[in-house]
Design goal:
The protein has a domain at about 55-118. Helices cover about 85% and strands about 0% of the residues. It contains five helices and no strands. The chain has helices at about 5-25, 30-35, 40-50, 55-85, 90-115. Helix 1 (about 5-25) runs antiparallel to helix 2 (about 30-35), helix 3 runs antiparallel to helix 4 (about 55-85) and helix 4 (about 55-85) runs antiparallel to helix 5 (about 90-115).
């Protein structure tokens, strides 16, 4: 892959994150909608297929994404729960991220064992 293709991928991916956070400042629901759409996954799928032309690899990749979306939900359940119960932002984020890491570890183990994802 040439440097400009990699730089383009970085710019597009970074632009999506910055755009979503800026949009979220103006309208939380629209910002959340943009972030909830799996744009990064879609871009990664497109780039993986473009680089490999291997539909089986893309199928395995998307199955892995499915298995690992579930552990990511831990963050979106625990963080607002902690914040609404009066916990400060940074400790809430740290604990929610820690719980999410544990959930990802479990999710990777389950995906490896039951879905054959390596």
């Amino acid at each position: 892959m040439v440097w400009w293709q990699l730089a383009t991928r970085w710019l597009i991916s970074g632009g999506l994150v910055v755009g979503a956070s800026e949009l979220g400042k103006r309208n939380e629901l629209i910002g959340a909608l943009l972030v909830s759409i799996p744009l990064v996954s879609i871009l990664a799928i497109i780039w993986l297929y473009r680089d490999t032309s291997d539909p089986d690899q893309v199928a395995d990749f998307t199955t892995g994404i499915l298995w690992l979306v579930l552990p990511s939900l831990v963050l979106f359940v625990t963080l607002p729960t902690f914040l609404r119960r009066g916990m400060e932002f940074w400790p809430s984020l740290g604990i929610a991220c820690g719980l999410t890491i544990i959930a990802y570890f479990i999710g990777v183990q389950l995906a490896s064992r039951y879905a054959g994802i390596s």
